Amino acid sequence: MANYKALTIAGSDTSGAAGMEADLKTFEEMNVYGMVVLTVIVAQHPESWAHDIFPIDMNTIKRQISTVAAGIKPNAMKTGMLGSGELVELVAESIQKYDLQNIVIDPVMVCKGMDTIMVPDAARAIKSTLVKFADVITPNTLEAAYLADMEQVDSLEDIKEAAQKIHKLGAKNVIIKSGSRFSDSDVMVDVLFDGKEFHIKEKSKVPNAYNSGAGCTFSAAMTAGLAKGLSVPEAFQEAEMFMQKAVSSSFKLNQFTGALCHWAHKL
Predict the structure, then answer these.
(1) What are the distances in angstroms from CA 158 to CA 148, 172, 178, 225?
(2) pTM of the entire predicted model
(3) DSSP 193
(4) Which has the closest alpha carbon to 75: 192, 215, 235?
(5) How many CA atoms lie within 13 A of 252 on its CB side?
(6) 81-120: per-residue pLDDT in tens?
């Protein structure tokens, strides 16, 4: 039996719905051994669910990266929340230093329910420094608009335009997910652009679903597929199937949020 290993460089969502918690659950359910480099801890206020972010110091992050990258060698890796431009630079340097392969960049710039960039200097560094290392990059529509220098991305044609522009920044494959942000449509669209062709997946929105951690989970599913040796289109197909089941069986956590059912594929 083959043992596949994947690394996530990401933050911790204390609620367990997103971040490295979602990544590790996804790796496990997709038969991949998961490892983590923790970048920040996110805690929520019980009365309002407002987020507080507690960064991990850079030396600790460096030690974590060397543990996995030099000591174990993952088959694939992904990024999640990177809380500063300095940290983005460190990740880019580490990809080169340790010759990391099958790189999935989830350019986390906004939290669920937010429409503004959380850490502008990190976002700028992702665009200028990290995108070019991506075998796959998985922005949502807000992140895609920022990376593509577009005012907004709110249609299929906008997604296609943004994907082409982001590909020109150096990403080998661009996947843009409309998610629930196309509010005037009952259809969600995920688009994969490989530099030549568009692969478009349309699906109906799931009524009353909870989607906290959906972006993390999708990028983790892509990472797991690449770790197992799948091609990008094959990993895309597998991730789409995994997500459909996880979202369809999502459940409520409290009055503010819910979570995906990462084990739904076994039900």
Answers:
(1) 10, 19, 10, 27
(2) 0.95
(3) E
(4) 235
(5) 4
(6) 999 999 999 999 999 999 999 999 999 987 655 667 788 8
